[in-house]
C-alpha cells in the first residue's frame, strides 16, 4: 500500500518546465519544437568558445543599434587644426584620431552598421540562390544537374576576392555594388551543400511517400527538401560571414567598396597605412575590429555546427 501511495504521489507531482521540454512524448507540435530548441541551446552553450562568439556578435548588434548614443564625436567631421593624429586617450579621444582629425572610436561604432549591412544583405541574397540551385540540381538530376553544377564549378574556379574585384570593376565602386559582387561570388558553396543534402534524401522513404501522395516536384523541393537543408546552410553562412567581412574590407582597402567619408573598416585601414610606423593606431584599431568580429562569427559558426549537426553532436 505504501509503495502504491508513493507511486501515486510521484505521478501526481506536477511536471517541471525542464521535464516538460525534455519529454519524450510531447503533447503538441509546440512542445516538440520548444523541446528541440531547448536541447539545441543546451548543446550550444556547452561550447564556451561559441558563447564567447555569441557575445561578440551581440555586442556588434548593440553597437550598430545604439551608434548614435555610444559615439562621442561625428564619424565624418573632424578637427584638422586641433585633433589631427592624436594618440589613444588624448583629449577625450578614446582610440585616437586619424589624419583628418576624426575620432576613430566613433568611426568604428558607425562602421559596425556598414559591416552588418554587408553581412546581412549578402546572406539574404546569396543563401537563397545557393539553396534553390542546389536543391533543384540534386532533385532533378540528369542534364539539369550537369548544367547547374558546371556553372557552379566556374564560379568556384576563381578566388572569391578576385572574382568580386572583377564584378566591382564592371559595376563601379560603391558599397551597393560591392554587396552585389560579394553576393554573386558567395552562392556556389551553398549550392554544393544543398545539393549534397538533397542527394541524401531524394530517394528516402519519406520523399517517396510524399511523391506517391501526388505532390509535384516543385512542392517536394520547396516544402520537404529545402527545410532539411536549412540547418547545414545556416552553419555554413555563419562560418562564411567572417570571409564576407574580409572580402568587403579588402574591396574597401582597394578603394572599390564604401567610398569616403563613410567609416568602413577596410577603407579606414587603407587611409591609415601611410602612418603605420609612427601613428599605428590609425590602421591598427579598425584591423583589431575586423579581427574580433571575424573571430566572433567563426566561434559562433563552430558552436552552431556542433548544435545543429546530429552527427557532430552525437545524437
Estimated structural class: mainly alpha
Helical residue percent band: over 70%
Q: Please work out how many helical segments DSSP would assign.
A: 14
Rounded to the nearest angstrom, the distance between the terminal CA atoms is: 41 Å
The whole-angstrom Rg is 25 Å
Biggest β-sheet strands, sense, barrel: none
Question: What this model shows, in words?
Answer:
It is a single chain. The protein has 14 helices and no strands. Helix 3 packs across helix 13 (281-308) and helix 6 (104-140) packs parallel to helix 9. With 315 residues, it is an all-alpha fold. The two termini are 41 Å apart. The chain has helices spanning 2-12, 17-21, 29-45, 48-65, 67-70, 104-140, 142-156, 160-171, 175-201, 205-212, 217-253, 265-272, 281-308, 310-313. 73% of the residues lie in helices and 0% in strands. The longest helix is centred in the middle third of the chain and has 37 residues, at 104-140.
List the helices and strands and how they pair.
Layout: H1 2-12, H2 17-21, H3 29-45, H4 48-65, H5 67-70, H6 104-140, H7 142-156, H8 160-171, H9 175-201, H10 205-212, H11 217-253, H12 265-272, H13 281-308, H14 310-313
Quick description:
This protein has 315 residues and is mostly helical. 73% of the residues lie in helices and 0% in strands.
Question: Top keywords for this entry?
Answer:
single chain, 315 residues, mainly alpha
Amino acid at each position: 500500500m505504501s509503495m502504491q501511495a508513493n507511486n501515486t504521489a510521484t505521478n501526481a507531482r506536477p511536471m517541471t518546465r525542464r521535464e516538460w521540454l525534455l519529454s519524450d512524448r510531447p503533447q503538441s507540435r509546440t512542445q516538440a519544437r520548444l523541446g528541440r530548441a531547448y536541447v539545441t541551446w543546451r548543446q550550444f552553450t556547452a561550447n564556451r568558445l561559441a558563447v564567447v562568439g555569441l557575445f561578440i556578435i551581440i555586442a556588434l548588434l548593440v553597437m550598430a543599434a545604439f551608434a548614435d548614443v555610444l559615439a562621442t564625436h561625428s564619424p565624418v567631421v573632424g578637427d584638422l587644426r586641433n585633433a589631427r593624429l592624436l594618440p589613444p586617450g588624448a583629449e577625450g579621444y578614446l582610440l585616437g584620431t586619424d589624419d583628418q582629425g576624426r575620432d576613430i572610436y566613433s568611426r568604428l561604432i558607425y562602421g559596425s552598421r556598414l559591416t552588418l549591412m554587408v553581412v546581412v544583405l549578402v546572406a539574404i541574397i546569396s543563401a537563397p540562390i545557393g539553396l534553390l540551385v542546389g536543391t533543384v540540381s540534386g532533385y532533378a538530376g540528369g542534364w539539369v544537374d550537369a548544367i547547374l553544377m558546371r556553372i557552379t564549378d566556374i564560379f568556384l574556379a576563381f578566388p572569391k576576392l578576385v572574382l568580386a574585384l572583377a564584378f566591382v570593376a564592371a559595376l563601379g565602386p560603391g558599397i551597393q555594388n560591392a554587396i552585389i559582387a560579394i553576393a554573386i561570388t558567395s552562392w556556389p558553396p551553398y549550392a554544393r551543400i544543398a545539393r549534397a543534402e538533397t542527394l541524401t534524401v531524394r530517394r528516402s522513404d519519406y520523399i517517396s511517400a510524399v511523391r506517391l501522395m501526388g505532390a509535384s516536384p516543385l512542392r517536394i523541393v520547396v516544402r520537404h527538401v529545402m527545410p532539411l537543408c536549412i540547418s547545414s546552410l545556416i552553419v555554413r553562412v555563419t562560418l562564411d560571414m567572417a570571409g564576407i567581412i574580409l572580402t568587403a574590407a579588402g574591396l574597401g582597402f582597394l578603394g572599390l567598396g564604401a567610398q569616403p567619408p563613410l567609416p568602413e573598416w577596410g577603407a579606414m585601414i587603407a587611409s591609415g597605412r601611410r602612418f603605420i610606423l609612427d601613428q599605428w593606431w590609425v590602421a591598427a584599431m579598425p584591423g583589431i575590429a575586423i579581427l574580433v568580429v571575424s573571430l566572433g562569427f567563426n566561434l559562433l559558426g563552430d558552436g552552431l555546427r556542433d548544435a545543429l549537426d546530429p552527427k557532430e553532436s552525437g545524437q
